[in-house]
Write a structure and sequence with these properties.
251 residues, four-stranded parallel β-sheet, 13% strand, globular, 8 helices, alpha/beta
Length: 251
């Protein structure tokens, strides 16, 4: 089950997992884009891809959709991924900004885990991978609400990794750096409007902080997601894996 799977890192992860032989269930709110993404997944013998329409802005709806899905299918892999909160300073954030982000990221993730975990326990195999941000290691300037909520998700994930490990289930976090997605486009635009710099200059400044000298492609982050989802990663649990070209200034 791959959430936010019609664009960016979510879609790239779905494509990569399908290439490796998984049967993929896409989750997103736009049915037209889900249908299109379904056509982009490779299919070989034994694979069957499908989609679920659900909006993370409505946790109860998401819960109903996924609870119904697990009645007939066991999911061995869950990729928690959804669009990040808008840019802005923490001091300027409204209470509802924090509440919405907490619901979209932590509460919805939790509902999904609660839905799929029984099947994973029975199968004695599970991979829960949360796509978060390098901000859980070093807060990113201008992303106040995101920094706050991402940290909460990371701590929740670490807690679950301890609770679920005895059942053959691992819980890990992927921390993407600057990646060529719609999310980075929105951040660049917002920064440009607030600073007066051109969008090109904002991008140049961001790239200047990356030792690799470029932004990531979504498929490069998806490759790390796929590895953590594989049997080869069975002894990797409760960790944060930055995929950021070396930008994060900590171990």
């Amino acid at each position: 089950m791959v959430c936010g799977s019609t664009q960016g890192i979510g879609k790239a992860s779905a494509v990569e997992l399908a290439l490796l032989g998984a049967s993929v269930t896409l989750v997103a709110r736009n049915e037209a884009k889900l249908k299109q993404t379904l056509q982009d997944l490779s299919t070989s013998a034994g694979q069957k891809h499908e989609y679920l329409v659900a909006d993370f802005n409505f946790a109860d709806q998401l819960n109903d959709v996924v609870t119904n899905a697990v009645k007939t299918k066991t999911y061995h892999i869950l990729i928690n991924n959804t669009g990040g909160p808008p840019a802005g300073l923490a001091i300027d954030a409204r209470m509802e900004d924090f509440t919405k982000a907490f619901s979209n990221h932590l509460l919805c993730n939790h509902l999904l885990v609660q839905a799929v975990a029984p099947g994973m326990k029975k199968a004695r195999y599970g991979r829960i991978i949360n796509v978060i941000s390098t901000s859980v290691k070093i807060p990113i300037r201008g992303l106040g609400v995101s920094n706050t909520i991402r940290g909460a998700v990371a701590s929740w994930s670490k807690t679950l990794s301890v609770e679920l490990a005895p059942f053959g289930i691992t819980v890990n976090n992927i921390l993407p750096g600057s990646t060529k997605t719609g999310r980075i486009d929105a951040i660049v635009k917002s920064t440009s409007e607030k600073t007066g710099k051109t969008e090109e200059k904002v991008r140049e400044d961001m790239i200047a902080e990356i030792p690799a000298g470029r932004m990531a492609e979504a498929h490069e982050v998806a490759a790390a997601v796929a590895f953590l989802a594989s049997p080869a990663a069975a002894y990797i649990n409760g960790t944060n894996l930055p995929v950021d070209g070396g930008r994060t200034g900590s171990l």
